[in-house]
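Assess this:
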Amino acid sequence: MSAEITSKAYVERFGPQRASFDGSIVVCLYGKPEFLYLQSAPVRGGAGIDSYEFIYVCNSPELTEILQREARICRADLRIEFNTGVSAGQCGIWGGAIMWPARHARSKRLLIVNPDVFPREAGWARTHTALVEGLPAAQTSLFGVPAFYDDGSLMHGGMHFEIDTGVSCGRTVLVHRNWCGWSITARGPPPGTQALLRARPVPFAVTAGFSCRGSGLV
């Protein structure tokens, strides 16, 4: 079903188009097209951001007209070069709404970001580029960043997996099965808790604001 929906999706580009970028920021709007402007405005002003393209994805086709209006306003006001992607229906958040527009990226670096994520530092784009170019590939192929609440406290410093036991009813017996779930590491500490902010290897799970080496068209 998702493949059928995404086969009819399309991308519309706004502003002068460059051939390549240092990174492609892909955002699924979750049915909230107004986040396009709200997020673009604070992100746009930082040093180094001109080397990144934006791809905003709407998997609610009934909101296409509103999305395009927001895109035109954003382009005229902020002078951002970006793209909007619209699918033919709900195709999931990650598997559908993120993966198909990523194929249109004009870089080899994908930054997958939730629409309600905003930068704490104006120069985050330049910092990100320096990290990707300066660290070994093993550390930058896929990495996440700490997320914070609006009051400055740590939302989480990573994720981890937990194994638990579930019980279901068979015809005559109770069946016990192990299942794997995930949990957030360190929710709520002060923002300066360095032990939770250091770079470290983690299980294969990252936050909804992460960077990975993609297979763009460059």
In short: The radius of gyration is 19 Å.
